[in-house]
């Protein structure tokens, strides 16, 4: 038997006594890695998270992370941008909520957007983005560009289709902004500040906000500190004509009564 054949016949070498091989972790895709990194950032905050903590949790060498992202801040931005993209409600889902009734449609859309903000993952991401947006304005810009702008564009299209008599001086996108700020902004701000509200109360507030958005406050409610506006003064010529007509009728009645009176 040749030396080559003999070498091939040898059984594989066994690890030395007392040593065991660690099973290799399955490799992560870029998306999976960023998802796990974001979970750590959400749990510990940007300042409280280290590259070492991330490498220990996901099983990727530190040099690999630095080669891909350069530093912690760049990694954080990549992770949070992916989180925002995954969190944003797709326009197709909003469009699927449309009905023939505009108020019912806006209530369904408002409920979808509010519920999306108030889900646990949404709350954590909202608070984290608010905490770092001052230091990293590109995070807020990404949120607006990829989240708010498509929603505004969809709402503008909806209002143009459902409200063809929109005042030409008003931009339909401005109406979309007003809807988001009135219906969704309140719950979002309260949630970002850690204020917990009952879901039934939030549902009632959403419904009320949609009604106010569509119909406004009743016209009879005067601004505080101001008296209700008086009706416009009548035309003087018409007022004189009405007075003359009343005088003629009065003379006629009086003449009729005099003729009927006994002598």
Overview of this structure, please?
The relative contact order is 0.07. The chain is mainly α and 263 residues long. It has helices spanning 3-9, 30-48, 51-58, 62-69, 72-87, 91-96, 102-118, 120-132, 137-162, 172-192, 199-215, 236-260. Helix 2 (30-48) packs across helix 8, helix 5 crosses helix 8 and helix 5 (72-87) runs parallel beside helix 9 (137-162).
Quote the average pLDDT: 78
Largest sheet: none
Radius of gyration: 36 Å
The CATH class name of the domain at 88-215 reads Mainly Alpha
Distance between the termini: 162 Å
State the fourth-level CATH superfamily of the domain at 88-215.
Tetracycline Repressor, domain 2
| Beta-strand segment tally | 0
CATH architecture of the domain at 88-215: Orthogonal Bundle
H/E element order = HHHHHHHHHHHH
Question: And the CATH topology of the domain at 88-215?
Answer: Tetracycline Repressor, domain 2
Question: How large a portion of the residues is in β-strands, by DSSP E?
Answer: under 5%
Helical amount: 55-70%
Q: What would you call the shape?
A: elongated
Structural class: mainly alpha
- What is the overall number of helices? 12
Outline the fold blueprint.
Blueprint lengths: L2 H7 L20 H19 L2 H8 L3 H8 L2 H16 L3 H6 L5 H17 L1 H13 L4 H26 L9 H21 L6 H17 L20 H25 L3
Helix pairs in contact: 2-3, 2-5, 2-8, 5-8, 5-9, 7-10, 7-11, 9-10, 10-11
């Amino acid at each position: 038997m040749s030396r080559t054949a003999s070498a091939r016949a040898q059984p594989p070498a066994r690890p030395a006594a007392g040593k065991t091989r660690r099973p290799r972790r399955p490799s992560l895709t870029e998306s999976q890695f960023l998802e796990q990194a974001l979970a750590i950032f959400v749990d510990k905050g940007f300042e409280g998270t280290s590259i070492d903590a991330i490498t220990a949790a996901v099983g990727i060498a530190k040099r690999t992370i630095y080669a891909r992202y350069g530093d912690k801040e760049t990694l954080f931005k990549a992770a949070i941008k992916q989180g925002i993209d995954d969190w944003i409600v797709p326009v197709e889902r909003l469009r699927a909520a449309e009905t023939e009734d505009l108020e019912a449609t806006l209530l369904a859309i408002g409920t979808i957007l509010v519920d999306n903000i108030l889900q646990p993952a949404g709350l954590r991401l909202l608070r984290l983005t608010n905490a770092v947006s001052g230091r990293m304005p590109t995070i807020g810009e990404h949120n607006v560009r990829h989240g708010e702008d498509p929603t505004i564009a969809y709402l503008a299209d909806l209002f143009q289709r459902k409200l063809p008599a929109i005042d030409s001086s008003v931009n339909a996108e401005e109406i979309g902004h007003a809807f988001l700020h009135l219906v969704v902004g309140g719950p979002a701000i309260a949630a970002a500040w850690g204020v917990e509200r009952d879901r039934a109360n939030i549902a009632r507030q959403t419904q009320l906000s949609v009604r106010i958005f569509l119909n406004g406050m009743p016209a009879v409610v005067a601004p505080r500190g101001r008296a209700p506006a008086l009706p416009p003064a009548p035309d003087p010529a018409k007022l004189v004509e009405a007075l003359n007509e009343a005088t003629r009728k009065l003379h006629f009645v009086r003449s009729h009564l005099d003729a009927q009176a006994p002598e």
